[in-house]
Amino acid sequence: MKKLLSIFIIILTLNNVQSQEIELTFQATGAATTIDSIKATNMVTGESNTVSGTNTLLLSSISTASRTITGNSGENKIYPNPFNEHAILQYASTEEDNIDIMLINSSGQIVAKSNQNIVPGLNRFNISVNTKGIYLVSIIGEAVITTLKMVCLQNSNNKNQIEYTDFSSEVIKEKSNTLEEGDLFHFMVYSSEFITIIADTPTESKTYDVEFIECKDNDGKSYAVVQIGEQWWMAENLKVTHYRSGEAIPNITDTLEWVNLSSGAYCNYDNDVNNVTTYGRLYNWHALDDNRNIAPAGWHVPTDAEWQILVDYLGGYAVAGGKMKATGTVQSGDGLWYEPNLDATNESGFSALPGGYRSSNDGNCYELIGTAYFWLATESINNLALRRGLAYYYSGVHAMNADKEKGFSVRCVRD
Fold first, then answer.
1. Are residue 365 and residue 305 in the same domain, yes or no?
2. How many Cβ atoms from other residues are within 10 Å of residue 2's Cβ?
3. What's the CA gap between 145 and 286, in Å, rounded?
4. Which residue of 237, 296, 332, 376 has the fewest CB atoms within a 10 Å radius of its CB?
5. Bridge-based pairing state of the strands 48-52 and 161-168
6. Residues 152, 255: one domain?
7. pLDDT tens column, 65-116
8. What range does the domain containing 62 cover?
9. CB-CB contact of 201 with 185 (8 Å)
10. 140 within some domain
């Protein structure tokens, strides 16, 4: 059954799919000089893969809606190609496996086959053919089904043959997700405590200069950052419990005390510390206005003008929210927003989650799964301040005034 299935896939590949591999290289700059790992996520399909200990990953690019099943790692190639007389098949594996290799001519006939136990590294095979033409090489194992095409220009061999020759234990470039033309990818690049997010739609091999920037609060917590236009933003909500001066920000749990405050404070949503890792903390506006400073060094709470730059870069208030919201929904099991999470693409990498808010009327928390509100450093009229909001039912950005005693999330922008 395995071999019949593979022939069917191979024929579809020959007739319907033109594919290539896109090689993406990442170079560390700024506060770090090395890259520990890269997490690549296809934002269209939800597929994700983490590549460790390398600055290079491969994407399998398929130009039609049909997808073939590809290997999970490695540089699989035939060289030279086209060839005369014989060629080398290089198959890369990250684990031990038992694979079947079949040589198939343009009529769909299996003209040679081999079974081989392979080891981690680059495994090499010598392939000979007795007739010039186009051939497909199918590799089938427990962890892989992949197909390569080769072209023989001339030959002097008496038989078709696949022979195992040797292997190398050199480091293998790991393959990430399948890429359809136009797919958006997020690359989360790690170096020690630094995390930089790159949002891009790669269509050809390229090199990314990954700038690592320190964004560490006074509790020692480091935050992922993302460049959107000319601005650098935190890609997660603030969680700090101390001002930059070292003094503690009061954690107010009592509802009555919260609504009567005229000084800085924070809370965890529903006073539940388990909400902090995902959603961050909620702060009243007085905590932002304190000269002891709530933001990480080198960062600050954005002004209305700085938010306007962000919104304008993302296409204006009517559409920017969808480009900022994390994708998926609670109901479908692949996100944290209520359905429909309208027009959420997160193409900016801002990765907004619905953190809800704390009321200035009764001191209770509301809308954890439905809305995300962010304080601005800009005051308004009648003892109000500005905030921006995103919602599950809306693709835009809400711009409104709010009581300074409300509790909202905070995102900082780089100085």
1. yes
2. 9
3. 59
4. 332
5. unpaired
6. no
7. 323 323 333 467 888 888 887 888 988 877 788 889 999 888 778 899 999 9
8. 2-20+56-175
9. yes
10. yes
